[in-house]
Amino acid sequence: MNEHLQAAKAEPLFNPLAPDFIRDPYPAYARLRTTDPVHLTPLGIYLASRHAEVSLVMRDKRFGKDFVDRMTRRSGAQILEEPVYRSMRHWMLVQDPPDHTRLRGLVVKAFTARRVEDMRPRIQQIVDETLDRIEPQGHMDLIEDFAFRLPVTIICDMLGIPEDHREAFYKSSRDGGRLLDPVPLTAQEIEEANAGNEMAQMYFRQLFELRRRSPGDDLTSQLVHAEEDGNKLSNEELTANIILLFGAGHETTVNLIGNGLLALYRNPDQLALLKANPSLITNAVEEFLRYDSSVQSTGRVALEDIDDLGGVRIPKGENVLCLLGSANRDPAVYPDHPDRLDIARPNVRPLSFGGGIHFCLGAQLARIEAEIAIATLLRRLPNLRIDDVDNPEWRPTFVLRGLKRLPASW
Question: Fewer Cβ within 10 Å of end Cβ, the chain: N or C?
Fold first, then answer.
């Protein structure tokens, strides 16, 4: 008995790449919230797991990104010489003001509520064409054949990637998620990330030249023009942020659709409720975001000494990882069975898109894509069933939570 107790005590509260955690992180989050809500890991990272602290850290100006210092502390200064991290240093996602303000200001017009709403017919067209092609087969992988294709097509549209270039993007790898994980990459993973980044840079530089010669009404043309203005965007910033927009523009939406569909088919009562009441789809998407967020965490650095974060002092320069997936199931905010999927749940306000100045630019676009994709699938393939709903294959990443594949038939 004592041996079992000692083993339980020795087991870390947070091991984000353990197979059991990848399969279902929520029991570990519940332990953190109740036993150590601002937990210091052996890697020297503080974990905020309750809704109150996560919300505060994302919005409080005493916390920032400070990417260079954060990466140096985590993996040593030499890591920033790796090409993939040299590129990442320019992502608006990891910038603090004033650079973040300047970079975000250049792309925010492409994501206004009006422009995104105007994309509904195009989104519906892509979903219908995808199902027209697949329906006669009687089976598909819901990730690769369905969830992946829609957001990739939409971000290709937005970036002005020509139609005849897109097949390579539909076949592209989804192995980049580990870059954002708090556990350092292996030498092989860094090598693969460098190679992927180099290929992306080569392609997008060719696209920039194309859009300089023949500009269009697309985001790449706008950013190329901003670069030519000189003081708004450097060439490194242009390349890095187009790569970021392409990745962020589809990766999390693929996972939102896949995780949402799995949750529905694991909860047949909720599936039946949504089929009977299709108007619930908007609220259902909010619940999917809360229940199994496609982004599980976001990081900040204390820019000054923080005397009290959930009863813990955070010294200046220390990393705080905000566990979005945990905050979304905090019973202090969702007292009515937070671990249950409830597509009619009132007042769902998931933290899945972050908060503060880094709130996701594409949040509304992702919501609309998921709404149309899931509602259309349920309407057109009412007899669809997931082949193995109990043992799906998850991608071995923590920050970006999603399925590797999800075979289904009808």
Answer: N
Buried b (16+ CB within 10 A) or exposed e, 302-322: bbeebeebbebebeeebbbbb
Give the torsion through C-alpha atoms of 253, 255, 258, 260, to 10 deg. Answer: -80
**71: pLDDT confidence band, cut at 50, 70 and 90?**
confident
* Cβ–Cβ under 8 Å, residues 320 and 48: yes
Provide the pLDDT confidence category of residue 2 given band limits of 50, 70 and 90: very low
Q: Give the residue among 158, 95, 55 at the shortest CA–CA distance from 366.
A: 158
pLDDT value for 230:
67
What pLDDT does residue 136 have? 97
pLDDT band at 5 (very low <50, low <70, confident <90, very high): very low
Amino acid at 333: V
pLDDT for res 173: 61
